[in-house]
Specification:
Helix content is 72%, strand content 1%. It has 394 residues and is mostly helical. The radius of gyration is 22 Å and the shape is globular. The two termini are 37 Å apart. The C terminus is likely disordered.
Length: 394
């Protein structure tokens, strides 16, 4: 019984992460169905983050009432920009790209996030490259391969892939939302969708970079997430009034549109935040990030069954390159973490002269300066857009 209990305890993080990938995949498919049925992605962003705010706010008010830092104007403006980058720019461009292409394509393209965050961290001097270190070489190589995969997916559509379980979908008529998903994607829509998803990913990577600075000044993460979602909701309302002149777009009933908004806000922006936070705390962010390609596979299967989604050769080849680059970046981060842990052990106080201790400390600092991005690089922490960001790292 003790052995069985130990196995279950070790299996919990795997079960949790696999379950979350199914949850994230469901969000992408439900969102695609809602968009195909005519829901404005601007309105969907508003409702999604309204649900997220209502879900997270009670926990932030209760659990962080004694540890919440004082709000200052510099912190407020940082939160304002975070809300603009996340709920407004990232979500709207991602949903637009999802509408033009499909859930499988959007999920695959989104795996460029760690590499893009790595590039921004280097640009803003949050990370110093030491190309003599293998871990840095792995990150750079992974970034190059990831970018190549994204370019391939953008510029090359390729022939339609005939999957064994979707061949029957070419003859019978497909109705409703599935008909829109099964329609042939034009080269223009393919290109625009790719660009929109890339812009969305760039905005989300920028959010991670800014959040690294903000979280040091405002350490109450639940409260920070609540404020970002709330201010993002207000910003999204303004954007929607500018972009959508018809008041009818705000109408929502007990239908797929409500389900998509509530599911995305409550499941992927609340429950997933808590569950993945526990996993990251126990196993680390690299373990959690390694499961993101699984979501792409689940979405491909669900999308082909439920939406009769068409998958093209260019998307498959690009996705393979992106996933290979992703794991190269994650391997480099894993090696970096191992080096930091080893350095921390060697830096423990010992009965040695003070001068030797100073030299050892200087050596540790020098090693850590090589490839350390900080609290960023993994999507929010879940690998899914719109979920609150946490102290994860790539």
């Amino acid at each position: 019984m003790a052995g069985c209990g130990g196995f279950v305890e070790k299996a919990k993080p795997y079960i949790a992460m696999i379950s979350l990938q199914f949850g994230y995949a469901g969000m992408n498919v439900l969102t695609k169905v809602s968009l195909n049925q005519g829901m404005s992605h601007y309105v969907l962003v508003v409702y999604r983050h309204a649900f997220a705010t209502l879900s997270i706010a009670p926990f932030a008010l209760v659990l962080e009432r004694k540890v919440r830092p004082k709000m200052t104007w510099p912190i407020f403006w940082q939160i304002f920009v975070l809300a603009m980058l996340g709920p407004v720019i990232d979500q709207n461009f991602y949903y637009a790209g999802l509408k033009f292409t499909g859930p499988t394509f959007a999920c695959a393209m989104s795996n460029i996030l760690p590499a893009m965050t790595f590039v921004l961290a280097v640009i803003f001097r949050m990370e110093k490259l030491q190309m003599k270190k293998v871990r840095c070489q792995a990150k750079v190589l992974g970034t190059v391969v990831t970018v190549a995969g994204a370019m391939l997916m953008t510029l090359y559509k390729g022939p339609l892939m005939q999957l064994a379980w979707t061949r029957h979908a070419s003859s019978p008529a497909v109705h409703g939302a599935a008909a829109a998903a099964a329609a042939e994607i034009s080269a223009r829509d393919w290109f625009l969708g790719s660009v929109f998803v890339i812009v969305a990913t760039l905005a989300w990577a920028s959010l991670f970079v800014l959040q690294t600075h903000t979280i040091k000044q405002y350490s109450a993460q639940l409260s920070l997430t609540t404020l970002v979602c709330f201010i993002g909701t207000l910003q999204a309302i303004v954007v929607t009034f500018v972009m959508e002149r018809r008041t009818s777009v705000w109408t929502i009933g007990f239908d797929m549109n409500l389900l998509a908004a509530a599911y995305a806000g409550i499941v992927t922006s609340s429950i997933a935040y808590y569950v993945q936070g526990l996993v990251i705390q126990k196993t680390g962010p690299v373990f959690a990030s390694a499961f993101s390609p699984l979501m792409m596979i689940i979405v491909a299967i669900m999308g082909s069954f439920i939406l009769s989604e068409k998958i093209y050769l260019g998307g498959v080849l690009g996705a393979v390159l992106i996933v290979a680059g992703l794991y190269s970046v994650l391997w480099g981060k894993h090696k970096e973490t191992q080096e930091k842990e080893a350095d921390a052990k060697t830096a423990l106080p010992m009965a040695v002269p003070a001068s030797s201790m100073q030299d050892a400390a200087a050596g540790v600092v020098g090693d850590d300066a090589g490839c350390n991005i900080g609290n960023n690089g993994v999507r929010s922490p879940s690998g899914v857009r719109g979920a609150p960001a946490s102290a994860s790292a790539v």
